[in-house]
Design a protein that fits this description.
Layout lengths: L7 E2 L2 E2 L2 H15 L6 H14 L28 E3 L7 H4 L3 H8 L9 E3 L4 H14 L3 E3 L5 E4 L5 E4 L3 E4 L8 H17 L5 H10 L7 E2 L14 E4 L5 H11 L7 E5 L7 H6 L7 E4 L11 H10 L4 E3 L3 H8 L5 E5 L2 H12 L3
Parallel strand pairs: 3-4, 4-5, 10-14, 11-12, 11-14, 12-13
Antiparallel strand pairs: 1-2, 6-7, 7-8, 9-10
Helix pairs in contact: 1-2, 4-5
């Protein structure tokens, strides 16, 4: 919803005025040389982090890894690779193996690499790169693992063993995400942290637009009796697959999708995992995004996956069409769309 969401300092989003000052400082230092939007933002973030003492600086790669602007640290404390999926093919390659090679570019000699569960072709590439440079791997299913207990809680097994509450985020995939975070802490501190603090973190974690239920706000108020409104920013084949796994358990209400996506992503691959569980789809262009697919293009992609799809002129029109009594409406396909939806939902009459 805001540019400043990209940078968090000591637990709080960077203040707008402080961010403006940081960007202007970086602009002066750059002195007119060629620099991309993301490079300038990354430079500003690193200046802010350097001036704020902290035990940990958590840096998320923007795109790929190998050539990413964030990938300048010769010896980070730990690196992590979440499950590799087909995404950003125009930059990273057309196969999982090619994309995994770009992701493996964050591995560093002598630095522990925490690796979430991967498909075999991705794991083979990551393993080969780790052996080539001497990066010790800490792999899910080998050196560590995580599973959901019968009572819904999370069990982590690695150098340390932990039995913790369920993650506060919905979906079976969030156990794997939580496990990856725990494995990073395992490599960093071993037994040097309190299980109670980890449990609190798991319970209280918030992640907007990741299976977020919107139960108040302008769009939520449009829901008729018995209907629900949900939002997710997933936008690649992997994201569609995990949403499909959640949708498979939603037997009590018909699922209606409101869907928009950037041209740089594969709408058909994303919808393949969701289509079997959805009754219909309302297609939209992402407002204010030049790189958005049109509503007609998105609807055509949806029909190719077997869905009944109708182009709509706006978010409000799409939600209105999808919001029949007793339905579960899921808005999905893009974090850019999710930002517009949250802004629209927060608007005041």
């Amino acid at each position: 919803m805001r540019f400043a969401e990209r940078i968090r300092i000591a637990g709080k989003l960077v203040e707008e005025n402080a961010l403006v000052a940081l960007l202007e400082e970086c602009e002066r230092a750059n002195d007119g040389k060629p620099m991309t939007f993301f490079e300038m933002t990354t430079a500003a973030a690193f200046v802010a982090f350097a001036r704020t003492p902290a035990e940990i600086a958590l840096i998320e790669v923007g795109l790929g890894g190998r050539f990413d602007a964030t990938n300048i640290f010769p010896h980070p404390a730990v690196t992590a690779i979440t499950p590799v999926s087909i995404d950003h093919q125009q930059f990273l390659g057309d196969t999982v193996a090619q994309i995994a090679f770009e992701k493996a570019g964050i591995l560093k000699p002598g630095v522990p690499g925490v690796i979430a569960r991967q498909v075999p072709e991705a794991m083979a590439v990551i393993d080969a790169r780790a052996k080539e440079i001497g990066a010790p791997l800490y792999r899910q299913g080998i050196e560590w693992d995580v599973h959901r207990r019968e009572d819904g809680g999370l069990s982590y097994r690695g150098t340390i063993d932990l039995d913790l509450p369920a993650p506060g985020l919905l979906g079976a995939h969030q156990y794997g995400n939580a496990g990856t975070a725990l494995a990073c802490l395992d490599r960093l501190w071993g037994e040097g942290f309190a299980p109670a603090a980890l449990g609190q973190g798991l319970r209280e974690v918030e992640w907007p637009a990741r299976l977020q239920r919107l139960d108040r706000g302008a769009l939520a108020q449009m829901m008729p009796a018995g209907a629900e409104l949900w939002l997710d920013g997933g936008h690649n084949a992997g994201g569609g697959a995990v949403l499909g796994e959640v949708a498979r358990t939603w037997h009590d209400k018909p699922l209606h999708l409101v869907f928009g996506m950037l041209k740089t992503h594969d709408a058909r691959a994303f919808l393949a995992g969701l289509a079997p569980y959805a009754a219909r789809l309302e297609a939209i262009a992402i407002p204010g995004e030049e790189n958005s697919s049109t509503a007609a293009e998105t609807a055509e992609a949806a029909r190719d996956t077997g869905l009944s799809a109708t182009p709509q002129p706006s978010i409000t029109a799409a939600v209105t069409a999808a919001a029949t009594p007793g339905a579960r409406v899921l808005i999905c396909g893009s974090l850019y769309l999710a930002g517009r939806v949250l802004a629209e939902n927060d608007r005041r009459p």
